[in-house]
Amino acid sequence: MNRKWMSALIGLIIVAGCAIGFSKYMQSVQTDVTTMQIWKPVTMIQSGQLITSNMVKKVSIPTVQHMDNALLDKNQIIGKRALIPIGETEEFLSWKLGDDTLYPTGDEEYIGFKIDFVGAVNNMVRRGDKVAAWVEYTQPKVLNGNGEEISEVQQAALLAANPMVTFKKIYTKQLIPNLTVAYVKDAEGNEIADATSNGPLSLGSSSQKDEENAERYRQNATGQPAYITFIMSPAEYEVFAAGAKDGTIRLGLPNSMNIIGTVTKVESKVGDQQAKDQTVPVTKIDTNISITPDKKNVPANAQTNSGTESKEGVSK
């Protein structure tokens, strides 16, 4: 009798265990197949790009794959700027997005110029970049032994007094170390951006396309640059225009993979640079100089740039 009860009890335990196990399995399957709607990039978004509505798409994913800090409201994504590259397999995590701060503050203004392929660092400059403005002097600056700039007359007088005297020549000078690029547009007014692989150019998976786009970063553009707009203070513009009279303006592009999206004021740096060079006379800005500022606080879709094009750099 006891053996029968033991067998029945063991059988009951086995049946109960199977029922509980099957229930747990069904719960896990139900969790896996439960989906939700999220937002992902249509294609890779590079750092510094302003996110617009045509750059995002709604997709369904299993709920368990959703990341807690990913944004679900499209309005919290559109109008933001990518601080780092965001691949098309990724969700829009809050820490990867920043506010679009590419607007003048204080006494700053939008100032636009014409530019060509070479002047835009071989078409590598994009909206949101920080560039260094250099001047390549038409005639090199001559410095005496004390590091002071001297004229040709002074140079001749020193040579007459001492034929063995030597001089230092300066061919270039950095004018503004961190100049904010507000817009780079083609002749039709379209913003220049990276040309990414999408569709027939890449038949691989989304992750493979992300890898391909990362490798092609800044190698292909959507158009040819014709206009560039900077955010400049009066002090920066004065230094920029004075340099343009002395030679050709060149733009230097540092590591553009750095986090982008915050406009930093560089007026103090310009002041420091002027203080260091206070022994060098600064040419006053000629009212006929062909660098024409845009109107202050002009919206992106209504901005007009002007200036005179230079074959090898930003117009003088």
From TrEMBL:
Residue ranges, compositional bias (Basic and acidic residues): 208-218
UniProt keyword list: Plasmid
Region (Disordered) location: 194-220, 290-316
Keyword Disulfide bond part of the UniProt annotation: no
UniProt keyword annotation of Calcium present: no
Biased composition (Polar residues): 195-207
Protein name: SAF domain-containing protein
Organism: Paenibacillus rhizovicinus
